[in-house]
Structures
1.
Amino acid sequence: MKLYFAGGEVGSHRRLLEDNGHRTIAMSYVGLSRRNKFTKPWIADGQFAPSTEILLDSGAFSLNKDDARVTEQQAIALSINYRVFIQNNPDRFSGITEFDALILGDDWLKGSREDFYDGLPDGTFIPVWHSMSGLDELHRLAGAYGRVGVVQDDLDDEDHEAALGQLAADGVKLHGMGMTSMRSMRQVAWDSVSSTSWLSPIQYGDLIIWDGVSRLHRYPRKRRDHGLKTFSDRLAAEGFDIAAITAGESAELLRLSAWSWSRYVGWINDWRAEHPQGLVTGSGRPGEPHTLPSALARPEPRERTLLPILSVTSSGTGDDKDGQAEPLTDAASTTLMRCDSCYIRRECPEFTEGAVCKFSIPVYVESANQLRSLLNTVIRIQAQRAFTMTMMEQAKGGYADAGTGTEIDRLARLIRLRSDAEKSSFTLSVTASGPAAQQAGYLSSVFGREAGDRATALAEPVPTAEILGDIVEAEVVE
């Protein structure tokens, strides 16, 4: 799969890509037309390095959005100008997508293919399939041209993915347009894709980092410092300017993003080379080969089994309503993890190719003592994490790492949880109501009048003077 970095119509983008060795670039004609009045012919040879491979995207995708405000006449004008642009740059583009503005209608699109696009050099033209046209049209385009463009938004169900997978297996070259989903890149054996996702750091302020194994990490703006601290040593070893990334300098953020996307696509290609008949799933393990689904096929019944991450035990106490032992759900100590796809396979001391994970994680929480032991274990682990991150923070010059504060806060919450669990108290609340005329009060209302009288009775007579205190004699004044 070849990745075309979209956005080449912007001069600073294409220069940054070329300066960093990325020589497969896509450009949008509609995007360029919004930045250029074309007072003179725009010649790609004067804008790109000779060794750069350019894919020309019509950019009509933006005209197909629900909020697009374009008339049919405006779309026709853009379509005609697009043809002129192509003619001004003969033999310069490795791929040219059709001007697939849906407002023009099927007849216009078919006529344009016959009148113009079919005359382009062999293998250059990329007709665009939309899901609303149906799978029959997809197969017709694939048979006629051997190369088909598919917009990511049209990958809306498993039938489409399966049909595309079968076409790819049959040798049809599929080009993914506007690809932003990592899953979509993995699920179909694309010949090429074009994507603007590498530009998200200057659009949304996020951070995109290749982990060096099999994942592309995206950290939003608020978590950017955390992601940078996690991978700072590795990025520094790759030659990236950590200070510039920390400061949010767009050029360095984009350089890192393009490098990360390139490595991610390289990993997909390496995986496919080893598993040509399989998919690349989210875990990196091979899936089943693509097959076209049959609407009439009925699935064969299968014996059900318990999820391997769960186990069922018996209470052994005969405490259910029928006096029988109750089944209890528990977490299994085994795991689905495999050495070949494990995240830490390069560092694990027990790595064995083709083996299941050697380690088990038994957990017992049946008694108060076992619960206390579990809490103490988790607190010790969290304390080690917090102290290790504090040491790393100091070793790197004392820069305040938000991640360190987060781990310390988690430790404090766990300690409070254990403290609350160890507290023992007993509270009895009694609420009573009754006629207000009852003179014995609440105790009489609950336990009877005699109980109220005994509660209010004095142990021995008390002189009146001690109760009333000093009284000053006075006359009553009317």
2.
Amino acid sequence: MVEVVAALVRDGEKFMICQRPEHKSRPLMWEFPGGKVEAGETPEAALARECREELAIGLEVGEKFAESTFVYPDISVHLTLFEAKIVQGTPKLLEHRDIRWITPKEAADYEFSPADVPFVKKLCYNQPFFVEGE
């Protein structure tokens, strides 16, 4: 199981999503920005590092929004989504194909990476979900 973290960055009613590049797994799907936790890192430190490396932004990582597990054909992930605020920089396309700020109503127009779908449902439709193993 790979530990993965992601950021829920809000701007008023909108939140930020990023489109995966064509050459990576789950190409062109949308996701909350983030990445893998490396050995010796806290989840919060990993999230700040990943967003600095992939988006050139500094984050203030807040409370946990939700967590889930998902088994892809190539990898199993435990994904934690944290509330986060940009405290430095403006998001840049260093790794992703696109960045969008969307409202909850617009979420249905995007194809999200399967591990992110429960978070979108909770955020946009107030649908509860159960973490695997509960």
